[in-house]
């Protein structure tokens, strides 16, 4: 019986080992699913929707080719709504997935007449899909004109340019689409290949092979046990009575030389029985060793790039998504830092206009003009590339979009820590980049109010909101009145001025001291007067978690130094003379100082006061007056 069990174990072991190896070789499934398409015509933009990208589970690999200029090709992805808003009135090709035969199909989308007057506005045209592209030679003047270049747009969550765009690996969630393009003038790459991985794991292969090897060992043990028991059961023989008479011997058969004699006796028989199972066991053992080696080779993973998981910016179900994600904002700040460094190094206002607008641009323009004539004039603080200490994007699906960021400043030349830099960024339309409207240094030990997480974003408070202690559009005038009149201002009790460094520098007390100094030095030959007015900068208000708001404003202060006695002259300071081009005047000189201010304004009914969070100020214009 033991011999029968051993043979059964050998057979089952062989079947299990072969089946395990077959799962890893002959019956192994394909490692990936491919779907490709060729975009007909000369489409400048190709859009791949998230539904196509998620047609199969797993990491998506996009391969493109067919570009006329590989250096200008790009692949980017962003929220689907943002991609369509950027395209606006542009014709583009869209890729769809046909699950029946796992193929990609191409349609041309021609937008209807845009409701807006300009390309890239917040009003997005409604596209119309057509199965085939327009025939060659029938393009309209709109399609013949150069299109916008999507490369470098702040709207994209991630972007790949040039050779980096050839093959891109991504894990894009629902609601995110890919745009493939050239530079807006040349056609986009027209060969699209999407690849998804397939689960090639064979969970039963290893147990089958190991189980087969275990059964093989068990079969060998059973066979050896059976052999041992068989030999032991024979024992010594006893003699039993007289021997029987021998039968007559038959004539012996003599085999010829060509016939091999068959071994005789119990030892030969036993040796034969031992060799046959042993030979079978040896063959199966060798087969098992080969199977283990084959499994080890096939199961070794091939090194592949680690995919980067990408999540689209999103809020809760009832609120719009934040304007930017944290990685997206980090990339925007780095681009702003590079542009600011180039402009500052060359004192080039045109370069500054690429990333600065409003009060921030006005102050930089004036600084460049002064430094061109006054070499010892210090430059404005550089915009560091990071790291971000705080980010507060607006939660919105429309434009303009506002983002607030606080960037850590490096130590100065003496190793002393500098106050962080707070930026207010605004993107006017989908095709515009974020521009720095305000760039201020935060006050020392400033207490920042509780803000919404960057993954949720904050709402923009209307400038005329009466839900705050001071309306946002009144904050600039109110603070300007305090700088002029001090504790005599009607707004004085509404502001917390305990640690206000700006009031200490240029407040009512300082103004009175300047007027007294000039009167003592020059008598009544001239007069110095101060007045406040609103600057051209926008009022930006972003809600805090306590129903208050962070309010950015741009008041201006006008200093008029005027001659009051015939024959007297007004002498301009070095900075004013550099900007105005007038060193002295027989009539008077007007100097305008711009302020970039950020306040925390508590909600109406709160016991808290309006608090200055940070500021930047400087001379923005100067001229001679008659």
From TrEMBL:
TM annotation in the entry: 204-228, 274-296
Pfam family, one: DUF8094
InterPro entries, A to Z: DUF8094
Region (Disordered): 111-156, 233-272, 295-324
Record keywords, A-Z: Membrane, Transmembrane, Transmembrane helix
Compositionally biased spans, kind Low complexity: 113-146, 295-311
DUF8094 domain sequence ranges: 320-623
Source organism, top-level taxon: Bacteria
Record protein name field: DUF8094 domain-containing protein
Species, as recorded: Leifsonia shinshuensis
Classification lineage: Bacteria, Bacillati, Actinomycetota, Actinomycetes, Micrococcales
């Amino acid at each position: 019986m033991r011999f029968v069990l051993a043979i059964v174990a050998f057979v089952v072991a062989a079947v299990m080992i072969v089946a395990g190896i077959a799962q890893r070789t002959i019956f192994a499934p394909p490692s990936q699913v491919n779907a490709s398409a060729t975009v007909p015509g000369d489409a400048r933009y190709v859009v791949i929707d998230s539904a196509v990208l998620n047609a199969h589970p797993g990491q998506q690999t996009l391969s493109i080719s067919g570009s006329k200029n590989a250096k200008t090709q790009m692949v980017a992805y962003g929220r689907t709504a943002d991609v369509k808003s950027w395209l606006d009135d542009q014709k583009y090709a869209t890729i769809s997935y046909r699950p029946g035969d796992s193929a990609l199909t191409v349609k041309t989308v021609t937008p209807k007449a845009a409701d807006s007057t300009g390309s890239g506005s917040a009003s997005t045209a409604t596209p119309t899909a057509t199965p085939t592209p327009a025939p060659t030679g029938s393009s309209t003047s709109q399609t013949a004109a150069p299109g916008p270049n999507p490369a470098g747009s702040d709207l994209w969550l991630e972007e790949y340019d040039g050779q980096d765009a050839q093959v891109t690996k991504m894990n894009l969630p629902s609601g995110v689409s890919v745009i493939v393009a050239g530079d807006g003038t040349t056609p986009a790459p027209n060969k699209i290949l999407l690849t998804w991985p397939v689960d090639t794991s064979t969970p039963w292969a290893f147990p089958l092979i190991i189980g087969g090897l275990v059964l093989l060992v068990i079969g060998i043990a059973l066979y050896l046990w059976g052999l041992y028991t068989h030999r032991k059961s024979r024992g010594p023989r006893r003699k039993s009575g007289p021997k029987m008479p021998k039968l007559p011997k038959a004539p012996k058969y003599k085999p010829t030389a060509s016939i091999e004699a068959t071994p005789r006796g119990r030892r030969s028989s036993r040796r034969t029985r031992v060799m046959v199972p042993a030979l079978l066991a040896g063959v199966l053992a060798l087969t098992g060793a080969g199977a283990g080696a084959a499994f080890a080779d096939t199961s070794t993973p091939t090194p592949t790039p680690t995919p980067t998981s990408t999540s689209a910016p999103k809020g809760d179900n009832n609120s719009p998504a934040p304007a930017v994600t944290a990685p997206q904002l980090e990339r925007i700040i780095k681009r702003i830092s590079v542009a600011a460094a180039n402009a500052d190094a060359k004192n080039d206002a045109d370069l500054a206009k690429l990333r600065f607008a409003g009060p921030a641009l006005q102050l930089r323009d004036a600084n460049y003009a002064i430094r061109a004539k006054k070499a010892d004039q210090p430059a404005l603080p550089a915009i560091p590339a990071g790291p971000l200490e705080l980010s507060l994007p607006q939660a919105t699906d429309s434009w303009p979009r506002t983002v607030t960021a606080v960037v850590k400043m490096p130590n100065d030349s003496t190793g002393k820590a500098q106050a962080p830099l707070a930026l207010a960024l605004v993107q006017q339309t989908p095709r515009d980049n974020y521009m720095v409207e305000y760039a201020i240094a935060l006050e020392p030990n400033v207490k920042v109010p509780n803000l919404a997480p960057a993954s949720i974003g904050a709402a923009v408070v209307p400038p005329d909101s009466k839900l705050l202690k001071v309306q946002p559009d009144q904050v600039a005038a109110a603070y300007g009145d305090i700088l002029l009149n001090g504790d005599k201002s009607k707004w004085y009790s509404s502001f917390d001025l305990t640690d206000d460094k700006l009031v200490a520098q240029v407040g009512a007390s300082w103004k009175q001291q300047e007027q007294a100094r000039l009167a003592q030095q020059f008598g009544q030959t001239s007069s110095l007067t101060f007045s406040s007015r609103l600057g051209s900068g926008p009022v930006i208000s972003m809600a805090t978690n306590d129903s208050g708001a962070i309010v950015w404003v741009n008041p201006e202060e006008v200093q008029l130094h005027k001659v009051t006695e015939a024959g007297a002259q007004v002498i301009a300071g070095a900075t004013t003379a550099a900007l105005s081009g007038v060193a002295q005047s027989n009539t008077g000189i007007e100097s305008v100082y711009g302020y970039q201010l950020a306040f925390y304004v508590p909600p109406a009914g709160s016991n808290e006061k309006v608090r200055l969070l940070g500021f930047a100020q400087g001379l923005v214009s100067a001229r001679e007056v008659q």
